[in-house]
Each structure stands twice: as structure tokens, then as C-alpha cells.
């Protein structure tokens, strides 16, 4: 996401607010970008920094090609400072070093910008040092604090920043972005149903463990359709050996739910909503086995299984009971 046009497609409200601040010459001394991972906070901070430093900007649009823009992309702009967690936290010394840097005159201009990534991970001492920094802002200084958990930050820091909330991406947008990045259409559709976090979707797509989740769900459906007497055997010998953790099992059940959602979409002629687009023959066969009513009931069974997993009921017992319910 290099341009304001691209950012507006992902975060229309935040993009418009920041563009308006440039148009009106009202750049705040500190911003707090709050939102889930993968919602564009880092990309937005980079674009905003380009707006501040680009000498060839046309209105609110940086040129993206000048020396300043290129150095911002490479992380080498002398007046743009990044602070990221050192290990598990951002430490007091990092903020002290930042403050020291800001005592020097800007090398390229009178402006200075700093971006703090995972700002909620500042230690108490680091937070207090930053607070003093924010309490005496320079007109030539702009801070951007990025966080997934603004509630974990000091109220006094939050009150001194302009809070901008980054909204979760919608399913269609995530699917489109994944396809643009080389993910197959079928996988993109599945991933966008499972998460509204683009980064998480990308990680799942690259995860060999997740690649087998889809296969196991289809294999379970095939067993239930063609060899129902072997259902429990499949669960004990193949399913449970792959889903070793409760969180993994929840993911498997989520994908299984999407299969039964597909049966309902198929019955209602909602072809565009179908996720397992490549399994047309199996879906046709399954539609003869599970009516729309029984598909809805199957979803209820799966939801109940997910609830039991959260309540620490033994996972194998939960899956065995679910398999018997789906066989009826």
C-alpha cells in the first residue's frame, strides 16, 4: 500500500482524516494508530512520513520517487526514527536514546518524526520517559505510536495523542489482496472466511500444517459419506494426530463449519458465497446426504463441540461425539 488511493481502499476513514490534516495544515504532534495486526498501521505511518518529508509532494500525494521517499522506504532517512521492542519490551534506554537524537538539529530539514511500533510493550519507565517527551512537544516533531492494544498504555499518553482506530479488513478485500500476492483463489476465499487479519491469513497460507487442515476436513467428509463405520477410526488415527492443541482443533472445526455453510449456500443458489469451490462433485454428493435442515443442525453440533473444547472437555471425546452426531 504505497499511495493514499490504496490506503483509502483499506482504511477509508483514517486515510481521509490524515489527508484532511495535511490539507488544513493541522498536523498533530502525536498520533496513536490502534488496530489489529495486518490492518495497515505500519504502511500508513510510512506514507504519512513521506507526506511530511517529500519535497515534491503534489497536494497530499508524495512523489514516491525522490531521495526522501526512497530513504523512508529503506529505513535510512536521518530524520525518521523507528523504535521497536528490544526482545519482549521497549526499554527506558531506547526512549532516552530517542530523546537524545531529538536534541540535534534535523539533518535534512527542521522536522523530525518518530514511529514507535508495539507502543503498548513499553516498560513503565519507558512510558514515563515518553510521557515527558509528549508533554513538551516541538512544533517540528511528529510522533506515531502503533499498537494492537491501546488499553494497555498509560491513559496520560493516550490523552496526548490523536487516536485513530484502524478497522478490520472485510472478507472481499482480504481475498483480493491475497490473490494479488499469489494465493490461489480457493485458498484466498477460505482464509478470508477464517480471519479478517491480512497478516494472519498470509501466515496461514504459508503454514504447511494449515495446508493439511483443508485436506483432513475433506477426508472426514468423504469418510462420513462413503465409509461412516470408519468415522471414529479416522478421528483417532488421523484427525487427532494433526490437531494436537486445542487452538488447532478450533481451527479445524472452523473449517468444517465452512463446509456445512457451503451446503446451505448451495441449496439457496448462492454460488458466489461457496468456499470449497473445487469440491463440486463432493458437494453434490453431500447435498444428497445432508439437507439444508440437517446442515443447519450439523452446524449446531460443531458449535457445541467448539464450546466443549473451550471448557476443557477431552478433545478426543468431543470429536468422537461430534462424528457420531454428523453420521445420523
UniProtKB/TrEMBL annotation:
<dbReference type="Pfam" id="PF13177">
    <property type="entry name" value="DNA_pol3_delta2"/>
</dbReference>
<keyword id="KW-0808">Transferase</keyword>
<protein>
    <submittedName>
        <fullName>DNA polymerase III subunit delta</fullName>
        <ecNumber>2.7.7.7</ecNumber>
    </submittedName>
</protein>
<dbReference type="InterPro" id="IPR027417">
    <property type="entry name" value="P-loop_NTPase"/>
</dbReference>
<dbReference type="GO" id="GO:0003887">
    <property type="term" value="F:DNA-directed DNA polymerase activity"/>
</dbReference>
<dbReference type="InterPro" id="IPR004622">
    <property type="entry name" value="DNA_pol_HolB"/>
</dbReference>
<dbReference type="InterPro" id="IPR050238">
    <property type="entry name" value="DNA_Rep/Repair_Clamp_Loader"/>
</dbReference>
<keyword id="KW-0548">Nucleotidyltransferase</keyword>
Amino acid at each position: 500500500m504505497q499511495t493514499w488511493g490504496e490506503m483509502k481502499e483499506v482504511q477509508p476513514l483514517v486515510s481521509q482524516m490524515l489527508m484532511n490534516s495535511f490539507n488544513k495544515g493541522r498536523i498533530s504532534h502525536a498520533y496513536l494508530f490502534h488496530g489489529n495486526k495486518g490492518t495497515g498501521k505500519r504502511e500508513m505511518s510510512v506514507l504519512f512520513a513521506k507526506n511530511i518529508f517529500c519535497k515534491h509532494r503534489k497536494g497530499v500525494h508524495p512523489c514516491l520517487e525522490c531521495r526522501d521517499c526512497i530513504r523512508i522506504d529503506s529505513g535510512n532517512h536521518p530524520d525518521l526514527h523507528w523504535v521497536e521492542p528490544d526482545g519482549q519490551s521497549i526499554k527506558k534506554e531506547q526512549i532516552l536514546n530517542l530523546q537524545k537524537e531529538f536534541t540535534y538539529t534535523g539533518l535534512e530539514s527542521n522536522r523530525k518524526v518518530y514511529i514507535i511500533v508495539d507502543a503498548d510493550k513499553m516498560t513503565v519507565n519507558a512510558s514515563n520517559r515518553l510521557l515527558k517527551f509528549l508533554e513538551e512537544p516541538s512544533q517540528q516533531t511528529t510522533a506515531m505510536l502503533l499498537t494492537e492494544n491501546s488499553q494497555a498504555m498509560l491513559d496520560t499518553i493516550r490523552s496526548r495523542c490523536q487516536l485513530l482506530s484502524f478497522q478490520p479488513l472485510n472478507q472481499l478485500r482480504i481475498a483480493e489482496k491475497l490473490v494479488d500476492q499469489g494465493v490461489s483463489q480457493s485458498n484466498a476465499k477460505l482464509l478470508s472466511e477464517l480471519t479478517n487479519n491480512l497478516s494472519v491469513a498470509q501466515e496461514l497460507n504459508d503454514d504447511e500444517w494449515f495446508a493439511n487442515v483443508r485436506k483432513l476436513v475433506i477426508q472426514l467428509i468423504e469418510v462420513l459419506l462413503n465409509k461412516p463405520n470408519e468415522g471414529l477410526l479416522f478421528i483417532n488415527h488421523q484427525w487427532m494426530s494433526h490437531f494436537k492443541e486445542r487452538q488447532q482443533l478450533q481451527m479445524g472445526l472452523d473449517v468444517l463449519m465452512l463446509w456445512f455453510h457451503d451446503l446451505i449456500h448451495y441449496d439457496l443458489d448462492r454460488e458466489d458465497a461457496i468456499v470449497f469451490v473445487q469440491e463440486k462433485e463432493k458437494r453434490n454428493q453431500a447435498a444428497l446426504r445432508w439437507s439444508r435442515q440437517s446442515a443447519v443442525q450439523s452446524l449446531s453440533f460443531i458449535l457445541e463441540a467448539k464450546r466443549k473444547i473451550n471448557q476443557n472437555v477431552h478433545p478426543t471425546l468431543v470429536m468422537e461425539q461430534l462424528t457420531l452426531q454428523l453420521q445420523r
